Every structure is written in structure tokens, then in C-alpha cells.
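Researcher: Re-running this chain for the archive, since the previous output was lost when a drive failed. Same request as before.
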Amino acid sequence: MLEGLLYGRGRLSANDSLGETDWPAPASGDPDLVFDLTGADAPREGAVAPFFDGAPGDAARDAALLEGRAPEIELALVAADGRRTLARGLPAIERPSALRFGRDAVSSRIATLALGLASHPQPGAFASPLASRPPPSALPFFAGALAAAAARKLRKLVVHEGHWRIGLRSLKPGDAAEDTLDWRGDPLWQWARDDRKRYFADPFLFEDGGVAYVFCEEFPYATQKGIISVMALDGSGAPGPARPVLERPYHLSYPVVFRHEGAIFMMPESSANRTLEIYRADPFPYRWSLDRVVMRDIAISDATAFEFAGGWWLTGATNDPDTSSWDCLSLFSGAGPLGPWTPSGEGPALVDASAARPAGAPYRRNGGMWRPAQDCTQGYGSGLALCRIDDIRPGVLRQTVQRRFKPPGGMHTFNASAHFAAIDTVGPRGRYAWIEGMLSS
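Model: Regenerated C-alpha cells:
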């Protein structure tokens, strides 16, 4: 009730009660699936019910949220001797200091998983029953949330959060590019010039004519809109000055650059325009002209195309209204890197805040295909996961996380070429260093 006074939206959200509703009469015959979404500690036997960290009931959900984290969601068929888990997901909680928003995020992802399960029923895996757990007191959580909100307001007066920087380093023959991520303090890393009036993020490497370039998002604070810029690298990996190469009336970021049939193309994120666009170099690297629009009326973030298992695939983060783009990965298939792209399966292939949203181009490693993914469990861009793709087919992407990196502040893009590795890391852009240090402590 207190949060409702502070954060009231004035409209229904995913976790609000609908009250008395005239539901349509059921069709004849027995239903294929019955969902128990009452939040009871003892859900109905024979129904599919949500479990949170292995325990049923809203109290188990709130126990995790009041600890400031998201619970792992299972949709499980309830039996007398246990449960059969049919679907799993880890939601992203964009505002962990507000119980109300955490409940909305969990409810939205229960709906996502339920729709996917209804479309593609699964046999599931048996698990023993777990007792429900009582939630901790909400009062310390609410007091902490108020203190955190006050600190955020003070910080905004003196610090620009989310100041991304790009680091680059050269690779020696035989180097595994991901091993360089363990050496972020190594002086071999060289950083793009930083005048504190803009940030640089989403670095993508491309080599042409014996010269290596890094394409990236440039975000000037004065305009509050991303553009695409490029920096040329010298032999040691030191980047030159950034030069803008593509600007649109809407925000651009995540510039995937690739070669196809002798031409060079760029596919930047343009989700602010609800499109996915491909540009052709005209000429490379400083001029680009629109070649085609491959998707319309869709907000797809960090779209990444790659060839694997005999076909072309595109992954991207998508979201419905009032849901996060940090935890849902959608899968598309196509004839080649230029598309056209067709949704592969109904609904997202992954719901996993720890390893869903793309974070760079997939690459081959030890005979397999690895994809960089964002780990958003501690906030947007809080870390990086390197995932081996185990299975990919229409509607299915299964992966195993091989390594995780969570540097101070965060990191959310990793790319490599034959000669260089590129990352971005984030930190504050302080106006007054002594206040910034006080707030950090």
C-alpha cells in the first residue's frame, strides 16, 4: 500500500487483481492444461503452478524479492509426491528496491512461460516437493528502499551514472580472446579517448585493407541520442579519434558490421524506431546508405546474426509492454545474413536475466559456437556470460554458460577479431570526486 502511494501508475499492471470477471465458458471436453495462479502455498494437484526457487506460493516469491533479487521461476505439474518441472525462467528485476515492480516482472514472465508451454507442451523432469517458505519482514526492505532512493537523488546531482568506455588490446597468435578478460587491469588494454561529454559502448571490430576499425555507439550527453562512430586502430590496438559515420532521427547502437558477397554491411540497433535496418558501406568505412529494412513494428535490441548448424540464425532481446528487454531472447531464422528473418517458434527461446540478451558476435571455440550474453542479474550491463550453444533449431536455443565476468561497475559487450579484442566497461562520470567517493562508501 505504501508503494502504491509512491509509485502508483494509475492503470492496471501485471500483478494487479482483476476482481470479479466474467470468464468465457470452457469448451467441451477436458482441458489440456490447468494453471493454478492463485499463489497458494499448496497448489491444486494436477494443475501447473509456479514455483519460486523450488517452493510454491506467493510467500516464496516475495521471500526472494524482499532479499533484493529475482527468484528462479518454474512452471511445474503438481503431483501428490512432488512436481514435474515443465518450464524455467529467471526474470530481470529492473527496480529491485520496489516490491511492486518485482511482483509485476515475475507475473509477466509467468505469463511468458505459460504461453510458451501451452504452445509446446514438455514432458518435464520430476523433482521432490519443497515446503513453502515465509517471506522476511517487509519493513526493513521498505526502509532500505527509501534510503536507496534518497541516495540516488543525491547522486544524480553530482554524478552521471552509466558512463561507458571502450577498451582494446592486441592478441598474439594462439591467444584465446576471452582469456584477456581476466586481465582488465593489464596495461596492454588501451582505452578510447574520453572527454566526459559522451560515452562510447558496443564495440564491434572489423578489418579491411590491412587496417582494423572499431565501430561503436557514441552517446553525446548534450543530445541524449546514440549515433554510430568508428575509430581506426594502430598496430598495438590504440584507437584513434572517433569519427561519426551514421546518424538517424532516432537512437542507434550495437553496430554489427559484416561482409557478404563482396560488400560490407552494418546492422545497428534501431529499436527506438521499431525497425531492424541494414546499411551498406558507400564507401567503407565513413559513409553508409540504407540498404533494406528487414523488420518493422518490432522493438528488437542487440540483434545478432550468425551461421550455425547448417542454417542462419538471428537472436535479439525483445519485450512486451511493461516487461524488460534484459531477460528475453527471441530467435529468428533466415536464408542469409541479410534476411529476411522469420520468427522461429512462438515466444522467446530463453527467459534468463543471467545469459539471454546478446553481448557481441558469436564465435567458434574448441569446436563449438560460443555466444556472448549480458548478465543483468545485478542490473543492466552488470556482467558478461560466455555461453556454448548446445542445440539450436526452430523455437529452441539451449546453451551452457562456460565463463562469467563481473568487473566493478559492469561490462556488456565483448568482440574479437584475428588480431584484437574489444570490451566496454561502465562507471560514473563524476562532477565532484569527493562526493562520488562518499556515496560509494
